[in-house]
Amino acid sequence: MPRLTDVNDQRVPPAEPKSPEAAPAAGPRLSLALDLFTLRRDPLPRMARPRWLARLPHVLVAYAAVFFGFLTTEQLLDHYHVKGGPPLAVALLTGLSIWLAMFRPIAAWWLALVAAGWIAWMIHDHVGQGQTWPWTPGGTFAFAPVLLLVALRVPPRVTISVVGISIALTGAAELTFHPDGSQISSMGVTVLFGFVGLLGYALRALRLARGELVEQETLTAEERARRTVLEERSRIARELHDVVAHHMSVISIQAQVAPHLVDDPSEELKENLAGIRENALEALTELRRVLGVLRSEQPGDPAAPQHPQPTLAELDGLVDNVRGAGLDVTTAIAGIRRPLAPGVELTAYRIVQEALSNCLRHAPGSQVEVGVAYGPRELHLCVANSAPTRAAAPSQGAGHGLLGMRERAGMLGGELAAGPRPDGGYEVSAVLPTDPQNPPAGTGAGPETKKAP
Q1: In what order do the strands lie in the sheet with 415-420?
Q2: What beta strand segments (E) does 325-451 contain?
Q3: Of 80, 139, 73, 133, nearest in space to 112 by CA
């Protein structure tokens, strides 16, 4: 085995195998031999769609096994005039090989070759003028389903070998034991077996491509969900940057003004306040340095200008905008309306905003109710819409609005639920703590299982 070395180390070249041509070739040949003499179980896959026809291929193969079994008996008795029990036995062997091909394709192929050889030996002395040998007229078509089922489950090189061996044995039998007056069948066998092998290869390639496509779509959906979470967290970080920067600025200004509000302040007080202001300014500088890059689409651009973040005090304006877009919206406020922590205000506003946007996109013409309830320790939000009165336009979005809302609620330690209503509408409800603490590790949005209305 070659010794592994650093790719940049030119002083110790890796050792070369003594026979570079023989070593690589031995592996594929041995592998092909093992594939041709295996009894490995490889069941015929079911149809994915439609589900009620999932077993249709198995039913068709079982029918083919019975049909070709009877056909073999009929041709041996009527066309070649072979009497006794052997025709029945070889017919059962032919049908068994087709049925076995559903579970063990290579073993079924060998069994079919044995049955074909037995038939050729059995009819050799009964072949009349113009009759085919070594295959009966129906024998080639009875062998074709076995080749097709083999080509559907094995690699292309094995399919080529199976078809090639079958054609080669036919040609060898004709050259060696050809009865006088019989008709040569090698040309028709070559065309039929070659076509069946190509058909099986094409169907197998199509099935594998569909499987890979489904797997890729699953990975793409998971990657899209992860990207949506990261984008939403980046957006939240930009908004929280504004909130934290505002409070740090206020702390700095208050620390600067505080000495002027006291008559004859002591030096110790001045030093402490100066230290508070200096720490606040340093923290603000670090915050802007770390999070400022999130404020623009490209990291190299300067940070976007500061804008005040929306709160529930601007809920009426948001509802008016939605009404102006043609949606019937009513609001209800319960409890004592009061300012909350900036993060809670911002999260509540964004949840209501996203829920109303979903109503506009997915439930045109519906009636929407927005409810906000102020509790002693929790803020309750509910946005519910009735069934849409007309069909919604096709949406170009990724369908991850709920994922972003769950992410926002989860980062505050709150909860969000969404789902259809019995009347055909949709409802989004959230519970946010009015005094959020640090949420436990791992709190966040779960995978989105329902699409917004």
Answers
A1: 328-334, 367-374, 378-385, 426-433, 415-420
A2: 328-334, 367-374, 378-385, 415-420, 426-433
A3: 139
By 3-state DSSP, what share of the chain in percent is helix, strand and coil, each rounded to 5?
A: 60, 10, 30
Q: Is this model's pTM higher than 0.70 or not?
A: no
The SS3 call for residue 226 is: helix
pLDDT tens string 403-418: 778 888 888 889 999 9
3-class SS of residue 384: strand
Q: Which residues of 349-383 are buried (b: 16+ CB within 10 A; e: fewer)?
A: bbbbbbbbebbbbbbbebbbbbbbebeeebbbbbb
Cβ atoms within 10 Å, residue 205: 11
pLDDT lower than 70: segments of the chain? 1-27, 236-247, 249-250, 286-308, 393-400, 437-453
Angle in degrees, CA 107, 108, 114, rounded to 5: 95
Provide the pLDDT for residue 212: 84
Phi, psi for 367 (deg, rounded to 5): -100, 130
Provide the 3-class DSSP secondary structure of residue 31.
helix
CA-angle at 24, arms to 18 and 27, nearest 5°: 125
Q: Please list, in sequence order, all residues whose beta carbon lies within 8 angstroms of the beta carbon of residue 158, skipping any fewer than 6 positions away.
A: 32, 35, 36, 106, 150
Q: How far apart are CA 406 and CA 175, in angstroms?
A: 76
Length of the chain: 453
Give the DSSP letter string of 356-369.
HHHHHHH-TT-EEE
Residue entry with tokens 């909860």: 415
- Name which of 46, 138, 64 is nearest 108 in CA terms: 64
In 124-157, which positions are buried (b, 16+ CB within 10 angstroms) versus exposed (e)?
A: beebeeebbbbbbebbbbbbbbbbbbbbbbbeee
Residue 86: both structure tokens together: 């052997």
Helices (H), 371-448: 401-411
Residue with tokens 């085919």, as numbered in its chain: 132
Give the whole-angstrom CA distance, residue 123 versus residue 107. Answer: 25
Handedness of CA 226, 227, 228, 232 (dihedral sign): positive
Q: Per DSSP, which regions of 103-232 are E strands? A: 132-133, 183-184
Q: How far is CA 285 from CA 55, 255, 288, 352, in A?
A: 68, 17, 5, 33
Which residues does residue 428 pair with via DSSP β-bridges, in sequence order?
383, 418
